[in-house]
Design goal:
By secondary structure, this protein is of the alpha/beta class. It has helices spanning 5-11, 14-26, 29-36, 40-54, 70-98, 110-127, 140-148, 196-199, 211-221, 234-242, 252-258, 289-299, and strands at residues 59-62, 65-68, 102-108, 131-137, 154-158, 168-183, 204-207, 229-231, 247-251, 263-267, 274-282. The strands form two sheets. Strands 3, 4, 5, 6, 7, 8, 9, 10 and 11 form a nine-stranded mixed sheet that branches.
Length: 309
Amino acid sequence: MTFNRLHFIRQTDLFTLRLFLSAVEEQQIGRAALRENIAASTATKRIQDFEEIAGVPLLERTPKGVVATAAGEVIARYIRKLFADMDDMRAEITAFSEGLRGEVFVASARSIFVPYLSRELGAFARDFPQVDLVLRELENTTIVQAVLQGDADIGVFAIMPGLDLSGVQTHPYRTDRLVAVVPEAHALAGRASVSFEELMPENLIVISAMHAAFAKAARKLGGEYKPKYSVRSTGVAMSLAQARLGVTVQPECDVLQARIDGVVAVPMSDSWAKRIVQIATPRDRHLSPAARALLEQLQSRPADAQPHA
């Protein structure tokens, strides 16, 4: 027996494909028949005919039931994909008549939610009121992992050294830069730009998410990295700078958003201080129609748009 593609397409119906998949999963034709609500004898005949059409043995019969052959496992894998694609098709077609529905899980960091993402998610919610947005605020380092593990459909994150992106697809979103936030009376306040090397002798106020990047930059410079203060939030870091306890380095979009009096933002001159924000989506699974609509809306925004005040 050989596999004839044209004959297979002409002779096979969707119900038989589902019945065969049920037999593989249940490992017993009787249970598969019960699952698909047909007589066991009819199920047996359909599966035998299906094997004849395929031209290769698909099930190995045992005293306890059935086990898929190697060829049967291949066909079962493609049947699962076929029905998954049909579910996606049904959802997209339904959206034309009933309006887009569904649930989208979004993961991002506070430094991206506040200046950019929150307002754009609000616009999406108004455009698609029947889509539920489930939002998770995570550290930048764990956003991609949430997408990989299926805990998020869309992750919005800042590129950083050592971040493994091999398991996700990435899409451009925004560009930003890091700035040094210094008290107005500080000697660096009047500078057009400042390097990290010049900041290292200062009383550095560092948020935990930036420790790794700063430590790496210090190692490259051959200097000693000893931050004076370590905090968790941008707001706290800038308030300490405002109190003249030291200097901090923050994304420019956060500084523009905060508008704290008594401090000055000085652009960082280091090449790594350019902040590239991207969107991560799963590489090995399809986005739902709702998640795809959100991705398209986020990508439709100008990549260099300034944050809202």
